[in-house]
TrEMBL record:
Coiled coil: none annotated. InterPro entries: Chorismate_II_sf, Chorismate_mutase_AroQ_euk, CM_AroQ_sf_eucaryotic, CM_II_prokaryot. One of its GO terms (molecular function) is chorismate mutase activity. It is found in: Cytoplasm. It comes from Phaseolus vulgaris. Its main location: cytoplasm. This is Chorismate mutase. Its EC number is 5.4.99.5. It catalyses: chorismate = prephenate. Keywords: Amino-acid biosynthesis, Aromatic amino acid biosynthesis, Cytoplasm, Isomerase, Signal.
Amino acid sequence: ETTVASARASLVRQEDTIIFALIERSRFPLNSPTYNQNYTSVQDSILDFVVHNTEAVQSKAGRYTNPEEIPFSTKSLPPSVVPHCPFSQFLHPAAASININKDIWKLYFSDLLPLFVASDDDGNYAQTAAADLTLLQAISRRIHYGKFVAEAKFRENPKAFEPSIRAKDRETLLKLLTLKKVEEMVVKRVEKKAMVLGQDVNIDNDIKKGGKYKVDPSIASMLYQKWLIPLTKNVELEYLLKRFE
Ligand SMILES: O=C(O)C(=O)C[C@]1(C(=O)O)C=C[C@@H](O)C=C1
């Protein structure tokens, strides 16, 4: 059963995934033909082609039967061909209707990507698309994990939340969901993780001060502060508003 503590532990672990995915995407420059619909013979950009077909395989293999996973493809995906794993029914059923992947997608390509890749072209478009998808999936999982955080918070103190949920009082709910101290800790830890995970490791194992990091630690932490935390909180809020539907 998910608790607030175990949900936070999951968010902490997901930081590693996101930072590694950032590092992997920043190995490549922007590679703009990846996103150009006219570059392929399939009327899709390489990105759309890789995203849809990767997700189709994953969908067949059962990935999206897990409520933590939400696909990005705008076309319908084939059903799972594997026996259904009985994931715990922790969330309220309305959770399934909360999906902000469209917003995440737009934000990623318009605001995030240009911050940490060089505006260059090295021809590795398929690899670039795969790296984009991995990072998008990690970001989406983190943000939508707000459903689990919100449910855990609600279950630990239902009386604190119920009146504002029934009154649809967004402002009070947001206050109840916000812990400034926790947010500051997340942002600081992400910056440190980007330093530790993004350094060159050698046998002597000394952390090189002032060395070059594989992804700018201040960009990683800014990404959390400006987008990931506010959007996670927003998912928490939207989830709670549907908690009694
Ligand atoms: O840890 C929590 O309590 C959360 O709700 C998660 C989170 C986050 O996104 O990291 C969001 C809101 C809180 O203000 C603190 C942190």
